[in-house]
Amino acid sequence: MLAALYATTPFAEEEADYLGLAALMIKDGQYLRAGESLEKVDTSVKKFDWQRYHTLRGLVYQEQELHQQTIDAFTAAQAAGQEDPIINVYLAKAWFALDELENAKAALDNTGELQQTLPAIWNLRIGIALKDEDYPSAWTVLDQTIALFPQEKAFQRQRFFLAMQLQLFKEAAALGRAYLQQDNVDKADYIAIANALTRSGEAEAALEFLEQARALFPDKHEVYLALGHAYLALDQVHTAAAMLEAGARIKPAMYKDAAELYRRANNIERALYLNARVSDQAEKLKQRLAIFLEGLHYEQIVAMHDELLRVKLMDDENIRYALAYSHYKTGDFEEAETLLQTLTNPSLFRKSAELRKSMASCNDLRWLCL
Q1: Angle in degrees, 0-180, between the axes of helices 255-264 and 237-248, rounded to the nearest 10
Q2: Which of 13, 129, 180, 249 is buried most deeply by CB count within 10 Å?
Q3: Cα–Cα–Cα angle for 68, 74, 75, nearest 5°?
Q4: What is the DSSP string of 231-246?
Q5: Distance, CA of 107 to CA of 160 (rounded, Å)
């Protein structure tokens, strides 16, 4: 297709063949320079090759995503005798980009036998139906496309996601199973299908695919992350934490999230164990403080002062308030007041006032407030 475009003609004795030069530049992917060369073409010569000229212009405009100019150039090329059906594919793409869907359909209808061999034509047909929100047509075209090109996995994957979009969850699950039975399916396919089901409230169906993925790809942390999301969607927080912990053994960056889920599951001991494996010191200490607060371990929070200071977390007023509150809970009202006096954030004023009020009422009988 369009092979003749790239043929060059000998240079004239006194004038360069800018048309041939532009063709070579397009073949080499140098579209900007090709456009510059086309601007230098002398179109006034006898028997000028308008068909080739407009076709090359269309290719340059297409690369530059100048859609109306692309249409004008290719239409002019066809008027000059260009009959290659691929031009209609290019026209359809440009019309589609301009939301001129009927014109895009008409262009695709003129692609002839190319429709039997070029999946891109059918991809455009599907895109037109989806952009037009004509979902029954999109489904029908997808079925036709899959029958024509059974080796093109992308269309089967697209049909699954269309079923999800239409909330045909049982159909989607069946399509997902069929899709994953093919050869050369990778972890990304399992995860994409499972995540789509999880987001749509079908986490139990997602788990079916993810457990298969775990058996096939036991060393891929992405699978454990997706499992964690699915179990979390089912409010099985502890199991979700265990999945992230398993993934963290492969990718240590997941330890922080695993520890957070154990904290939410009220497994403070396990949360602290995994928190100790977090490599970022500031993030580790911030999370450890939250875990200690969850477990009401105020003495341990007070003991963190120097570590918090070392990694500059004491610059955070929320951290200083948490430390002040912990001093209050351990009976050190003086240190609590010292920290409260450093707070300037208006959002903490009310909390500070309430804490001071509590300390004043507890001043004589501190043990009652601990």
Answers
A1: 160
A2: 129
A3: 85
A4: HHHTT-HHHHHHHHHH
A5: 28
CA 314 distance to own-chain centroid: 35
Residue 59: which residues within 8 A CB-CB, separation 6 or more?
5, 26, 31, 34, 90
- The whole-angstrom separation of Cα 276 and Cα 264 is 17
Q: What is the Cα–Cα distance from 179 to 62, expressed in whole angstroms? A: 34
Instruction: Report angle CA 54, 59, 62 to the nearest 5 degrees.
Output: 120
Can you give the pTM of this predicted structure? 0.68
Q: Quick check: 199 and 229 in contact, CB under 8 A?
A: no
Tokens linked to 283? 């993030």
Instruction: Judge whether 239 and 208 are in contact, CB under 8 Å.
Output: no
- C-alpha R_g of the chain: 33
Query: Structural domain boundaries of the chain?
Result: 1-83
pLDDT of residue 370: 58
Contact 187, 222 (CB under 8 A): yes
User: How many whole angstroms separate alpha carbon 141 and alpha carbon 158?
Assistant: 11
